[in-house]
TrEMBL record:
Cellular compartments per GO CC: cytoplasm
GO BP field: phagocytosis
Keywords: Coiled coil, Cytoplasm, Phagocytosis
Pfam family, one: PID
Localization, UniProt: Cytoplasm
Family affiliation: Belongs to the ced-6 family.
Name of the protein in question: PTB domain-containing engulfment adapter protein 1
Coiled coil: 159-193
Domain PID: 25-155
Predominant location: cytoplasm
Amino acid sequence: MNRAFNRKKDKSWMHTPEALAKHFIAYNSKFLGKTEVDQPKGTEVVRDAVRKLKFQRHIKKSEGQKIPKVELQISIYGVKILDPKSKEVQYNCQLHRISFCADDKTDKRIFTFICKDSESNKHLCYVFDSEKCAEEITLTIGQAFDLAYKKFLESGGKDVETRKQIAGLQKRIQDLEVENSELKTQLHVLEEQMMIAQVPPGDGMSSKTPTDIFDMVPFSPVTPLIPLPASNGSAPPPPARSTDMRKDLFGAEPFDPFTCGAADFPPDIQSKLDEMQEGFKMGLTVEGAVFSLDPLDGRC
C-alpha cells in the first residue's frame, strides 16, 4: 500500500467540488471489518491490519458466512458506511478524524483508512474490498480532504468548529433515538404484563347484592337451624324468636290468645275468653268419659 493523502496544487480530481461539498459520492463495496491499530498512519500499520482482517474473514468464510456489503457516502464532512438496502448508518467517520487512507497495489481490490473513534479515542483501521473501484474510492476521499482543507483556510477555522458541533449534535440525536427505541420496547413489555395480570370485568365476586329485573332483591328462604342436643342429654331450648318475625305484613304483632295477658283486652272480652278456656278444659274429661265440643263429632 503506497497511497496516502498528498495535496498537490496541480492534481486533477475526478469529481466536481459541488458534488462533494453540497452532496456526496456513493460507492458499493464489501466490508472486511475494522480493527484497532497503534499508530494513526503508516503503510505498515494498515498492511498488518489488512492481513489480520483477511485471516479473520477467511475463517468466517469457511464457516459459511458471507462478506457483508455496504454503501460508502463520501463528502467533505466525512465517510458514512451504510446498509445498502435499509440505508441505515452503521458508522459515521468524520473527515477531520480520518488520519490516513491508502489502497493496496498488490491487491487492487483492497483499500483502507484510519479513523480516530470519537468515544474511545482509539485509532481504528477500516478495510474494504472493491473489485473495480478501490483506487477511485481512495482518490475521492483524497479530493474530499483537499476541498475541506481549502474551506478551512477560507473560513479561518470556524467551519471546522461548526462541523464538530454539528457532528456532536448528530451523535446525541442518534443516542436519543436508540434510548427512545429501548423505552418503547420496555413500555410494550409492561403493557403486556398488565394485560395478563388484569382480571376481566365480571369474573370477580361483586360485593353488591344482586337484584332482579325490577331492581328488587329476590326472595331467598333462610335455611332452618337444626338444634343440637345439649351436653347433659336434655332437650335443647327452643330457638329464640326474632323480634322482626313477630310482626305481620303491616308491621303489627300477630294475635296469640295463649300469650296475651288480661290487660291486652277489655274486661268483658277477657271474661268471655276465660269462660271459653274453662269450658274447654272441663269438656275434655268427666269421670273418665271423653266429650267433644264439636256437635258434629257424635260423642257425648
